[in-house]
Amino acid sequence: MRYFRLLVLGNGISAYGSYLNMVALNVFVYDATGSALAAGLFMAVRLATSVVSGWVSGRLVSAYDRKRLMVGADLCQALALLSLLLAPDGIRPGLLYVLAVVTGGCSTLSQVALRSSIPEIVGAEHRVRANGLLVTGRSLAMIAGFASSGVVVAQLGYSAAFALDAATFLVSATMLFLLPVRTRSAAAPAGAGSAKDSGAARWTARMLLGTAPVLMAMVAIRAVDGLGSSSHNVALPIYSSSMDPDHPATFISQFWATWAIGNIVAQQVIGRVTKKSGRTPGERAFALGACVMSAGFIVVFSGLPTAPAVIAALVAGAADGFTEIVYVSRLQTAPDEQRGRLFGLTASVENFGFGLGMLVSGAFLEAFSPLQVVGAFHGLAIVLCLILLGWLLRRGRAAPDPPAEEPADRDQPTVTEGRG
Fold first, then answer.
1. Which of 184, 219, 249 is a domain's end point?
2. Where are the transmembrane segments (predicted)?
3. pTM (2 decimals)?
4. What is the 3-state secondary structure (H, E, C) of 57-87?
């Protein structure tokens, strides 16, 4: 864990650049083109690239050195931003879509590679704690990125914002390159995956459909969670404007800051519980956490006064962070040679759900209220979680969750259904 904390710092710096990048680039696209359609197309290209790159990233992570892939992903994003910064004004609009492809693909590749590597970096027994630290780092980065983006762009301009973005990726790449961490099982050296490519290509679908239906259900719920997440993202500005037309940004900032605090609280709680009990929360905890998360988001849009709405956002953020940690930790029980493809699959599914939700919820908000749209999308997630929870309870209570300190996860020959 000694080096992992430095890795979390570097990942947080990179995440800060990503969130700053997200705001600055979206505003820049609109200013440079004067077209809302162009701005929407930029976001669509980035999301579509993230969906496609999930499948590609799974193959790359299974076949090549993950540390080099993460360093390369950060360097590519830095280079793309610097190219935009140095390009003449006339060709910048065209470069924007190239940048959308690079940032969408590289951010997904980096995420898949890092999540796949955690059991090898810290040991399987410490993966829950490590995932919690990553959630905390990214939550803090989100607060800093969103909070500073407006100030950086307004006070220093787009060039300074792009230069700062590029610098964060360069710092992250340098830190990761210098850290003496192993990202792959010693029994499965880099390149080994390419020798079994035909069999591995069929593994994900066969594993999910045939040997781990619970895991398949969890992946499906994450896709629906993506729909719900997009609904409250799109509905939040509309709802905030209806609450305070003169200061619509106030509730938005309160919402995201409180949500991030909830994520951090979740990391602290799950870390202490796991250390004390010696057990990793399983599928039942995932289903319960997802229910609480979706219910919290629905309550936020129910028309309550600011104080209880913010409390609901805190609960939703804590449940969101808890669910993220449990879900990622569960997927990390897969053998090292299969883990990359599994995380590539879930990255594609989650990004597809989020992208589809952005389109559908935006259209629905033309005819329905934010509460109706958010309630429908998150309500669907609650229904699926309750079905999964009922099925898990019906299957029996004989097998407990696997101990957190059990190191055998990394060596198991196949992925088996947990009974959390």
1. 184
2. 7-30, 36-57, 135-154, 160-182, 203-224, 251-273, 285-304, 310-330, 342-365, 371-393
3. 0.83
4. HHHHHHHCCHHHHHHHHHHHHHHHHHHHHHC
- Residues 5, 56, single domain; the answer is yes
193 CB-near residues (< 8 Å, 6+ apart): 59, 62, 63, 200, 337, 340
The span from the CA of 350 to the CA of 167, in Å, is 28
Q: Is 178 left (phi over 0), alpha (psi -120 to 50) or beta?
A: alpha
Quick one: what percent of the chain has pLDDT higher than 70? 87
d(CA 120, CA 188): 11
Question: What Cα–Cα distance (Å) separates residue 59 from each residue in 116, 193, 274, 334, 413?
Answer: 12, 8, 32, 15, 19
Does residue 229 have a pLDDT over 80?
A: yes
pLDDT tens digit sequence for 319-374: 999 999 999 998 998 888 888 888 998 999 999 999 888 888 888 988 899 999 99
**73-99 tens-digit pLDDT:** 999 999 999 998 888 877 887 888 899
The amino acid at residue 212 is A
Per residue in 245-270, pLDDT (tens digit) is 877 777 888 888 899 889 888 888 88
DSSP string, 18-35: HHHHHHHHHHHHHHHH--
**Residue 307 C-alpha from the chain's centroid:** 28
- Whose tokens are 């992208």? That residue is 355
Assess whether 224 and 174 both reside in one domain.
no
DSSP 416: -
Q: How far apart are CA 215 and CA 405, in angstroms?
A: 21
